[in-house]
Write a structure and sequence with these properties.
secreted; 4 strands; EC 3.4.16.-; globular; 231 residues
Length: 231
């Protein structure tokens, strides 16, 4: 999406290279680290870190209004709101704030065209219940295993009946089949993640391998999944 991408070198440190498929070739993009505390964003007071989804959406809308007033040359551009993961909740809320602001006649008026979400988190129950059908569609589990899970669990994978032994067994098999798959991107390798510092106040879900592979030590032939620029 961005102008640069990371190119993992073979036996050397990664470097940044120009992304030939960057969205910036056809569009102007503003990346917002929101709410305060994510990415490079910060608050000047402790109260600034107290947030909610609705408040974050209002703050994002307020930011866009101020930015467009300071850069009026972009007011004529069509606008799309985009996000991923938890953005599946926030992006529609920001789009709604803009739409309601336009209807109320608030300035500046934005040429909102729609919104885009990728790998979005919307409803925990529905999201988790779709993981088994998705694994089947992506050929991560067999037809037989999916049919067993589907018939025994009846589509309820997030909170299965603890008395339904057949369902629990099927879900255990699904877990075993997908345990070495990187959940965020099934086509990428599942690497060992390290904590940036040992003392973390809140728990993080890490994907730790018992036998992690040193990816940089592998030859190009051993890394068919690795993206690299053409020479």
């Amino acid at each position: 999406m961005g102008r640069c991408i990371s190119d993992i070198g073979y036996g050397s440190l990664p470097s940044f290279v120009i992304n030939p498929y960057s969205w910036t070739k056809i569009a102007n993009i503003i990346f917002i680290d929101s709410p305060a505390g994510t990415g490079f964003s910060y608050a000047t007071t402790p109260q600034g870190y107290i947030n909610s989804d609705s408040r974050t959406a209002k703050y994002d809308y307020s930011f866009l209004k101020k930015w467009l007033l300071n850069h009026p040359e972009f007011l004529k551009n069509r606008l799309y709101i985009a996000g991923e993961s938890y953005g599946g909740k926030l992006v529609p809320m920001v789009a709604l704030e803009i739409a309601e602001g336009n209807e109320a006649g608030l300035e500046p008026r934005m040429l909102l065209q729609g919104y885009i979400v990728g790998n979005s988190f919307t409803d925990e129950q529905k999201d988790i219940n779709q993981r088994v059908p998705y694994a089947h569609r992506m050929a991560l589990v067999s037809d037989e295993l999916f049919e067993l899970a589907n018939s025994s669990c009846r589509g309820e994978y997030a909170n299965p009946d603890p008395e339904n032994i057949q369902c629990l067994h099927a879900l255990q098999l699904v877990t075993e089949c997908t345990s070495r798959i990187y959940e965020n991107h099934i086509l990428e390798p599942k690497c060992k993640f390290m904590l940036p510092r040992p003392n973390i106040s809140r728990p993080l879900q890490l994907f730790l391998e018992d036998d992690p592979v040193d990816l940089l030590s592998l030859s190009k032939q051993d890394q068919p999944w690795l993206k690299s620029r053409e020479k």
